[in-house]
Amino acid sequence: MKTILNVNELTKKFGPLTAVNQLSFSIEKGNVYGMLGPNGSGKSTTLGMILNVVNPTEGNFSWFGGTQSTHQALKRVGAIIERPNFYPFMTAVQNLRLVCRIKEVSQSKIEEKLELVDLLNRKHDKFKTYSLGMKQRLAIASALLNDPEILILDEPTNGLDPQGIAQVRDIIFKIAAQGTTILLASHLLDEVEKVCSHVLVLQKGKQIYFGPVTALTTDHGYFELDATDVAALKEALQNNKHIKTVEQQGALVLAYPNEALEIETLSKALTNKGIVLTHLAQKHKSLEEQFLTLTKKNKA
Amino acid sequence: MKRLFLIEFEKLRANHSSRILIGAYFILLTSIALIAAIKFDIGPIKFHLAEQGIFNFPYIWHFNAYIGAWFKIFLAVVIVSMTANEYSNKTIKQNLIDGLSKREFLHSKWMMIFSLASISTLFIFVVSLILGLIYSNYNEFSIITQDLEYLVAYFIKLMAFFGFCLFLGTAIKRSAFALGFLGIWQMFEGFCYGMLKWKSPEWLNAEDVYRIFPLNAMSNLVREPFSRLSAVRNLADQVGEQITKNTDVQLLDMLIVSAWCYIFYALTYRLLKRRDL
User: Fold this and answer.
1) Best to test chain A binding among B20, B78, B98 (most A CBs inside 10 Å)
2) How many A-B residue pairs are in contact by the CB < 8 A criterion?
3) Of A22, A44, A26, whose CA–CA distance to A211 is shortest?
4) 8 Å CB contact between B212 and B205
5) With an 8 Å Cβ cutoff, is B2 touching chain A?
6) pLDDT digits (tens, 9 = 90+) for B219-236
7) ipTM of the complex
C-alpha cells in the first residue's frame, strides 16, 4: 500500500507545555482516518505541523515518501482547518481562483466543486456575506480543487447548526465513497465512527491508540433482547453459561457474554427453552464508550 | 515569478480600499503639475512659481523626486494593511496550507513593493519630463539627462520604506499599530539624534551615527531641493548668508539604504519562519 504521510516522533512544546508528545503514525492510501481527542489534546497542533504552519520542536514527518519539499507536497493535499480562512472582500470564485494559482492547478474545476458543495448560486457574492455553514462548505470546495490525494479536515462541523452539520457530513461521505484518503480530526465521536476505518487517539498530546477502529476494544459486545415472557427470558439467560450478567434497561433486557458468542447460538439456546423472542440484537459498544474507557484507563 | 506576482496582484485588485488608496496616490503624484498653476498677482508683486526655475532641467528631477516622496505614506498604508490583514484574516495560514512556502509568500509581497516603487518612479519620470518640456528654459538632450540619479535614489528610497512597512506589518500584525509605530520610530530617531548631539563622546560624530538610521538615511537620499533655487540663494546672499549645503545624491546613502532594504527583507523572513500560525 502506498504511504501518504509518515510521522516520526513529532513533538511540539509551547514553553513548559508539551502540546504534542512524540507522535508516530503513518497514513496509507485509501483509508479513512479519524483523529480523536478532547479539546486541547494536540489535534490541531499536530495538523498544523504536518501542514507547514507550526514548526515542530522535535521529530519529523514526510509527505509522499519525502521526495518533495513540504510546500510542494501540500499542493497535492486538500486541507481545511478549524475556521474557514478566506479574503473577506473577495467573492467565492475570486478566492478559489487564488487557491488555484497557489496550488498551480487549472481553474476549470471551480464550478464543479462549487456545485458539489451547493454554492453555485452564490458564487459571485463576497465571502464576508456568507453564513458560517456556507463558509465551511466553501472551504471544502477549496480543499477539493486539486482533487487531492488526501483530504485533511479539522473539526469540519464545529459551530455549525444541525442542518449545516448534516450537509458537511454528507459531503464527507460522498468524498470518502470516491476512495479519497481522509484524515478527520474531531471530538465528535459519532462523526468519526460513521466514516473512519482507522483511528488515532490522543490525550494530552500523547498517542494512546493507533489502529483499525474494529480492534479498538477486544470486548464481545452485548445482546439486546425482549420476549413475550420476560421473567422466563431473564431466568434462562442467568442460567446460560456463556452469559456473565443480565440487566434490565427500559423495556429491553441486556445480556453481556463472558466470551465470544454467536447470535445464532444464543437464539437457538433460548428457543430450545421454549422462549419466544420478540427482539434480539447484537450490539457493540459505541466508539464514544470505547473512547471513554480508553482515556480513563490511561489516566489511571 | 509571474505566479507570485499574480497571487499578490489579485489580492490587491479585489480590495476596494487598496484600490482607492493606490488611485489617490497616483492622482496626487500627477497633481505636482498643479504647482505650475501657483501664481500671485498682488498689485506690483507678480509671482509665477513655474517661472522661478523649479521646472528647469535638470533641477526638476530633484524637485519632483523630493515632492513625490511625500505621498509615499499612501502606499505605506496599503502595504501595511495588506500584510496585517493576512494575519487578521488568517489567510496567510491558508496560503501556506494550500502550498505556498513562507519564502514564496514573502517574495510575492516584495514583488508588489517592487512594482509599486517602479510604477511610482516611472510616473515621476513622465510627469517631470512633460512639465520640463513645457516650462524648462533648457531643452537640450544632454541637460535633460543630467541628474537622473535623483530618480534612482527615489526608487531605492521607496523600496526601503515599503520594506520597512512590510516588516512592521508582519511584526505587529495590526495595521493601525504598525503605522503608529512608524510614527513613533520617526520620533525615536529624532530623539536619538538629540541625545547623540548632546552626550556623545568627542571621537563619535553625531551626524555620522545619525546617518545610518533607516528613516534618516532614506530622507538623506533625496535632500531638500529648495536651497538650490536661485531665488533662495539670492535671498541668502542678501542677508549675508552663504549656502554651502550639498544636496547631491551620495553613494554612501544609497548603500546604507540598500543595506536597510536587505535587512528588512531578511528580518521579515526570519519572523515568518520562526513564528507558528
Assistant:
1) B98
2) 77
3) A26
4) no
5) no
6) 999 988 888 877 777 777
7) 0.86
